[in-house]
Structure formats: structure tokens, C-alpha cells
Amino acid sequence: MEKVNVVFNWIGANMFLIIIAAILALILIVTILRFMEKPRTEQIDTFKKWLLYAVCEAEKNLGTKTGELKLMAVYEAAVKTFPWVKIFITFEQFKEYVDDALDEMKVLLDTNTSVKEYIEGETKPPEEGVNE
Predict the structure, then answer these.
(1) DSSP of 19-80, one letter per residue?
(2) Which of 36, 31, 50, 37 is nearest to 97 (CA)?
(3) pTM value surpassing 0.70
(4) CA-atom Rg of the chain in angstroms
(5) pLDDT tens per residue across span 56-111
(6) In 3-state terms, what secondary structure has residue 101?
(7) 2-13 and 15-37 helices cross at what angle (nearest 10)?
(8) How many angstroms separate the Cα of 70 from the Cα of each of 3, 54, 98?
């Protein structure tokens, strides 16, 4: 009987954390289910849009002439964000998707100065006292 009281006391003391964990788990489950309900082509399109972001971040953080390193950084981030990548997409297919994202990034760099400044680190912080 004492063990039951200990359990109930622990639940009572941690009720807030239990509720928060349950809400976060529910949000995660709903997000996964909504994503899985999308048609496969829409899932891949969503993934490819995310890959463009990941490739841009890798380019910004690792710079040029680090292709394999950037590929592995993007792959690691993809597997963390989309765990199903490891199961449903071969590494060769993943590399093709990354190559497509790189091509799209190059077009963005040529056509969008804001993206170019962001990736190449040319964006300067605002001067002190200047309101934007």
C-alpha cells in the first residue's frame, strides 16, 4: 500500500510535467499522422523544400570546397528531421535530391541578392542606434 501512495504522490507532484509531456507527444503524433496522410509526391516535395534550406545552411556554415562534408551534414540533419529517410530513400537517391537542391540554390544565388548575402555572410548587422 505504501508503494501505491508513493506513486500517487509522485504523480501529484509531477502532474504539470506529465500534462506537458502528454501534450507534446500528442502534437508530435498529429504532425506525423498529417504528414503521413499526404500523398507520397507531396511528402517528397515537402522534403525537397526542406533540403533546399538544409543545403543553404550547410553552404553557409561549411563554405565552398567541402562537398562530402556538407553532404554528410545535410544527411545527418535530414535523418534527424525526417527519420523515415533512412528507411525509404537510398543514399544514392538522397544524393540526387541534394544535387537538385544544390542546382536550385545556385539559381537562387544568381537571382536573389538577399539569399546570396545570407549564404556568403555579407549581411552586416545594423549599426548601433539605427532602428530598422
Answers:
(1) HHHHHHHHHHHHHHHHHHHS-HHHHHHHHHHHHHHHHHHHHHHH-SS-HHHHHHHHHHHHHH
(2) 50
(3) no
(4) 22
(5) 999 999 887 888 899 999 999 999 988 888 888 899 999 999 999 999 999 999 99
(6) helix
(7) 70
(8) 53, 9, 10
